[in-house]
Amino acid sequence: MKTLDDLLGEGVSGRRVLVRADLNVPFDKANPGVISDDGRARAVLPTLVALRDAGARVIVMSHLGRPKGAPDPKYTLAPVATRLGELLGSPVAFASDTVGEDAAAKVAALSDGDVLLLENLRFNAGETSKDDADRAAFAAQLASYADFYVDDAFGAVHRKHASVYDVPAVLPHYAGGLVLKEVEVLRRVSESPEQPYVVVLGGSKVSDKLAVIKALLPKVDKLLVGGGMCFTFLKAQGHEVGKSLLEAEMIDTCSALLAEADGRIVLPVDVVAASEFSADAAHDVVDIADIPADRLGLDIGPKSVALFAEAIASAKTVFWNGPMGVFELAPFAAGTRGVAEAITKIDGFSVVGGGDSAAAVRTLGIDESAFGHISTGGGASLEYLEGKKLPGVEALEK
């Protein structure tokens, strides 16, 4: 596929470049409009700076959240435009629509080196439509703004959406540095990981991670399971899990996976059991054989952290996706922190698989540079590791 460097080599001064970014940032629930983690915005900065400094007229587009194909003030990208301008050190114009009058006027007004952010792509039904003609029509409107297209939104490449899949069919297209790096890293951990290879999985549900577990299990030396999903595995081992998150329909599947793994799946040996899902809840560390019937596990315990850290210490490759507990609540953050810190100490290559894991690294104040790579695309990363084709990558390769 052609790259951003190829485009810059061709010359972009005075030309309009449409950049698909992933600015789907989280907001502070207590302070609407305040971004709680700008990691995804920072990740696309090198591409935007390179284009701006080369004199391109840069038009950025992204989605935010899941509006239902119509404008919704809750999901406006306006605060993101402000933050992007702060990060770039120069103003970023904002269009109050994507393919309407305001966007057209602001695109026409761009000068060399200017940056414009369009309103949320998903305010238009054509962006996510399953009808090829609807998507193509919306893509044609977006493509009419520009001379070239750059995709640097790895977090969206697993979606067959207009801005990801259909626009590159219309415009000369190039992969941004972030997309190239992500694909390179994921290829490394899926095709040629240096052994010992340890995968750490957390999050809520086994069903969400089942495909990636099946894909990775034959390749790993150890698969460490924490988070809410561990309780279905523990139930499959015969433990009672109280009121902890449980997918009853997945118990037999977990039993089969444990048998197939032949000891390579490592589960917690203790958990933090709480009276309710609250930072103020009464809670205690209990062994997995002693989870009270009226309590729910919200984090792995200290003995589990030590067990996981021991497995991680000898690894030459680690892939981590999913927190070990409800890290957003201080009493239940120690498991995620302990495992993350263990990963930073390995003498090898570590990958944080985006999503909540990346958010946890930043929320808990762990040095990002201590990891080999922090992905911007949780869902895209998992689908790549499952062996699925990513529509956005396929579109760039054509």
UniProtKB/TrEMBL annotation:
Residues given in the record as ATP binding sites: 209, 297, 328, 354-357
Record field: catalytic activity: (2R)-3-phosphoglycerate + ATP = (2R)-3-phospho-glyceroyl phosphate + ADP
Entry annotated with the keyword Iron-sulfur: no
Gene3D superfamilies: Phosphoglycerate kinase, N-terminal domain (3.40.50.1260)
Keyword Nucleotide-binding: yes
InterPro entries xref list: Phosphoglycerate_kinase, Phosphoglycerate_kinase_CS, Phosphoglycerate_kinase_N, Phosphoglycerate_kinase_sf
Major location (coarse): cytoplasm
Biological pathway: Carbohydrate degradation; glycolysis; pyruvate from D-glyceraldehyde 3-phosphate: step 2/5
Top-level taxonomic group: Bacteria
Enzyme class, spelled out: transferase
EC number: 2.7.2.3
Compartments it resides in: Cytoplasm
Record-listed substrate binding positions: 22-24, 40, 63-66, 122, 159
Keywords: ATP-binding, Cytoplasm, Glycolysis, Kinase, Nucleotide-binding, Transferase
CDD domains according to UniProt: Phosphoglycerate_kinase
GO MF annotations in UniProt: kinase activity
Similarity remark: Belongs to the phosphoglycerate kinase family.
Assembly mode: Monomer.
HAMAP family in alphabetical order: Phosphoglyc_kinase
UniProt xrefs under PANTHER family: PHOSPHOGLYCERATE KINASE (PTHR11406), PHOSPHOGLYCERATE KINASE 1, CHLOROPLASTIC-RELATED (PTHR11406:SF23)
Protein name, UniProt field: Phosphoglycerate kinase
